[in-house]
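To: structure desk
From: M.T.
Subject: fold request, one chain
Message: Could you run this one when you get a chance? Sequence is below, nothing fancy, just the single chain.
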Amino acid sequence: MELREVQDLGNLRHKRILIIGSSGAGKSTLSRKLAEQWKLPIVHLDALFWNPGWVPTPKQAFREKIQTKLEGNEWIIDGNFDSTLALRAKYADLIIFLDFPRYLCTYRVFKRAWEYRGKTRPDMGAGCEEKIDLEFAQWVWRFPKDVRPGILKVLREASNVDICILRNPVEVKAFIDTAPSR
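Reply: Done. Structure tokens follow.
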């Protein structure tokens, strides 16, 4: 199936939006801007998944938390967690994929780690101080090869959902600037 991207958002009124992409692409930043512009609540998947001290939520409990959020009438959900992407896509009316170059995402992850060193980011679970390790850096670097193909497969299979792929910060800015306020 061909990937169907929406070109003009001017007349569309989305209420259930997924924002996906590599770490460092700017998912949380975009979700905060759109939440303010579109008056929608945000769900950060990292905040749902990570418990204090970087303790993960068990898989089934995490899916249940996501399912509860998906049943809401309006939301912006940002985050990866590819194991739940197909489920989330079924509920969304707009999916925004930040399909950025790996070098930019890697740079931003290191920049963010420096900026938030010793602190917890606003989009992260409480008690999860910012950190970066080799495994995470490798995951970001390998995202285009290891994760992106699965995302594109889910996007191709998604029906009744508008898809917007933004490939760089200039496109994100243009999207924000042209998206209608509510």
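Reply (cont.): The mean pLDDT is 92. Let me know if you need anything else for the meeting.
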